[in-house]
Design a protein that fits this description.
- The complex is a heterodimer of chains A (174) and B (440).
- Chain A is an alpha+beta fold and 174 residues long.
- Chain A has one domain (2-171): OmpA-like domain (60s Ribosomal Protein L30, Chain: A, 2-Layer Sandwich).
- Chain A has helices spanning 2-18, 55-66, 84-96, 114-134, 159-165; strands spanning 69-71, 102-107, 142-148, 167-171.
- Chain A has a 4-stranded mixed sheet with strand order 1-4-2-3.
- The radius of gyration of chain A is 17 Å and the shape is globular.
- Chain A starts with a helix and ends with a strand.
- The relative contact order of chain A is 0.17.
- Chain B has 2 domains: 37-162, TolB, N-terminal domain (Rossmann fold, 3-Layer(aba) Sandwich); 171-434, TolB, C-terminal domain (Neuraminidase, 6 Propeller).
- Chain B is mostly beta strands.
- In chain B, strand 13 (231-236) and strand 14 (242-246) form a beta hairpin.
- Classes of the chains: A alpha+beta (174), B mainly beta (440).
- The A-B interface holds A 2, 75, 110-116, 118-120, 122-123, 125-126, 129-130, 139, 143-148, 150-153, 155, 157 and B 180-182, 207, 209-210, 225, 228-230, 249-251, 253-254, 267, 269, 271, 273, 275, 296, 298-299, 312, 314, 318-319, 341, 343-344, 357, 359, 364, 383-384, 386-387, 402, 405, 430-431.
């Protein structure tokens, strides 16, 4: 996610330097095509402005605003109702951009044995993969990897940290 | 070769020898602290060895021997400052003195120069109460093997007095992690069982996991995410030669060597995401599926005869241990029945017990399941204990635990009575695996 953010900043800066005459303002994130009730990644509006951003990149930025992380319950891999819209938005994007690939990284909290947690992370990534495929995304567009408990989003040994670490991160690399 | 040399403070005097012995030293050092000792440990005097040459003695053999015996939990070595005499051979021992100091046994010895870098190391073990000579041997050593010879002497004393083969000449492998995500450095490290002589086997900014010793102790299998996907590698320790043996879609994890060293049991999820156990013949590359359940099947480990696999499966709703027939992998039989979480089984060297990660009143602990009676004995008292691995003599388990938010290693005697902690000075240490006995 951070890499994507950086990439967008670099792209944006380059684009602004390339054509300084006609900066345009992108639509505010509230006008994203999906309901934003499931936003989990903060509510700050997008101020990325550049005519050089492709439609695809704008869409990815909108997805980023909506959420690139899906959280799960303890020892569970079913997608909670509040993330249904997030998954649907990503599916819609992938359906409209058949050449784009999404990387699904499954994670668990730190409790219990490490290889079993690799299994839990994989199961979560697979749940998101299935949901995307049910909505028309092709197998070739999706790669999954499970890091188990190896890559926590938040350090700490309490439920506050655990609940943020049981997750699937969606990533659009090149 | 790394320039930075860190030596456990217990054996600072041994720095020169360690430097000679080690190809590359890791930054992590392990400091051992006995956290729970055995009350009836046998008192023994390990007298500083004599030096028949000129100048300073080349090595403190007795210090290593005493530390080994103490770490086993079964012996309480006499403090050096309480020794009123320094005999170096049997005929110099005044047994009356040592009876007065309440030592049951006494080990004495000396190091003899044999020209250049060659030394003879002579030791004797006596029963203080009877004066009987129980063991004695002369071993040859060089500067670089002095530490190993000291462990060997501890092995001989331990076996003589307990009837159990000593495991002081063995090695461990573990993972060391420094930094916080996403900037973490992972190292796969091999060291002597006491944390000395650390060598970095693999080094990556992406996770390294699940090291497993080949039965001959020559190679390690492990999981690396260095390509941003999981793959299993087999690396020969002596040469550093490395082979990627499985990089299929999805999980490539939990490698475990068959007793004959020909085959790895591994966990794959492949394209369909179904997490199951397979065997992979390293010679023929033949992959054979062992489990077919839609649940998570993982963490396989072999029976002593190589005919069965024990593994963890949540097919019944929570992680539990099952066993399956390798030749005919049909219906697995359930092995664990107590508790809602039994994971990562490892078989004891006598084949009678499985060590597991066991959820006990909200805390993850190490427990032993007796395979005959199915009785469960909880051995540790941490909150996040994991990765149990038996010493090859079955007397001790090493495992990973947490100490004030840091990953540390600990050992516990298989009766649960003696625990010790090995903490790294840098970062977390985790996933310890105890190597086999060295070839005799």
């Amino acid at each position: 996610m951070r890499a994507l953010q950086l990439m967008l900043i670099v792209v944006t800066t380059a684009a602004l330097m390339g054509c300084p005459k006609k900066p345009q303002t992108l639509p505010d994130s509230s006008s994203t095509p999906t309901d934003s009730g499931a936003n989990t990644s903060g509510t700050s509006g997008s101020d990325i402005s550049s005519s050089a951003l492709s439609a695809e990149q704008r869409e990815i930025e909108q997805l980023r605003q909506l959420g690139m992380v899906i959280l799960f319950d303890y020892d569970r891999a079913d997608i909670r109702p509040e993330y249904v819209n997030v998954v649907a938005a990503h599916a819609k994007f992938l359906n409209g951009n058949a050449n784009r690939k999404v990387r699904l990284e499954g994670h668990s909290d730190e409790r219990g044995s490490r290889e079993y947690n690799i299994g839990l992370g994989e199961r979560r990534a697979q749940a998101v993969r299935r949901a995307l495929m049910l909505q028309g995304v092709t197998e070739a567009q999706i790669t999954t990897v499970s890091y188990g408990e190896e890559r926590p989003a938040v350090q700490g040994s309490d439920e506050a940290a655990y609940s943020k670490n049981r997750r699937v991160e969606l990533g659009y690399g090149r | 070769m790394m320039n930075q040399v860190h030596i456990c403070r217990l054996w600072r005097t041994a720095a020169a020898a360690v430097l000679l012995l080690t190809a590359s030293l890791a930054q992590a050092q392990l400091v051992i602290e006995i956290t729970r000792g055995q009350e009836n440990a046998v008192p023994i005097a390990v007298v500083p060895f004599g030096w028949e040459g000129t100048g300073a003695p080349p090595f403190d053999v007795a210090q290593i021997v005493a530390a080994d015996l103490q770490r086993s939990g079964r012996f309480a070595p006499l403090d050096r400052k309480d020794m009123i005499d320094r005999p170096t051979s049997g005929e110099q021992i005044r047994f009356q003195d040592w009876r007065y100091l309440k030592s049951d046994f006494i080990a004495v010895g000396k190091v003899l120069p044999e020209g250049g870098d060659r030394f003879g190391v002579q030791f004797e073990l006596h029963n203080v109460l009877t004066g009987q000579r129980l063991a004695g041997q002369k071993l040859s050593a060089s500067n670089s093997s002095m530490r190993a010879v000291s462990h060997r002497i501890a092995d001989l004393i331990f076996e003589q007095l307990t009837g159990i083969r000593g495991a002081f000449s063995t090695r461990i492998a573990f993972i060391n992690v420094e930094g916080a995500p996403p900037q973490q450095r992972y190292k796969l490290i091999v060291s002597d069982y006491d944390g000395e002589n650390q060598q970095v086997i693999a080094n990556s900014m992406e996770p390294l996991m699940s090291p497993a010793w080949s039965p001959d102790g020559q190679s390690l299998a492990y999981v690396s995410f260095e390509t941003r996907a999981a793959a299993i590698y087999v690396q020969t320790l002596r040469t550093g030669e490395r082979r990627r043996v499985s990089a299929r879609a999805g999980i490539n994890g939990a490698p475990s060597w068959s007793p004959d060293g020909s085959t790895l049991a591994i966990t794959l999820s492949r394209k369909d995401g179904d997490i199951d156990i397979y065997t992979l013949n390293l010679g023929t590359q033949v992959l054979t599926r062992m489990t077919f359940d839609p649940g998570i099947d993982t963490e396989p480990t072999w029976s002593l005869d190589g005919r069965k696999l024990y593994f963890n499966s949540d097919r019944a709703g929570s992680p539990q241990i099952y066993q399956i027939d390798v030749a005919e992998p049909k219906t697995p039989a359930r092995v664990s029945f107590e508790g809602s979480y039994n994971a990562r089984p490892r078989l004891s060297p006598d084949g009678k017990q499985l060590a597991v990660v066991y959820l006990d009143k909200g805390a993850y602990k190490i427990a032993a399941i007796d395979l005959a009676s199915k009785a469960v004995q909880v051995l540790t008292n941490g909150r996040q204990d994991e990765s149990p691995s038996f010493a090859p003599n079955g007397a001790t388990l090493i495992y990973a635990t947490q100490d004030r938010g840091r990953g540390v290693l600990a050992t516990v005697s298989t009766d649960g009575r003696v625990t010790q902690r090995l903490a790294a000075n840098v970062g977390d240490v985790r996933e310890p695996v105890w190597g086999p006995f060295p070839a005799k």
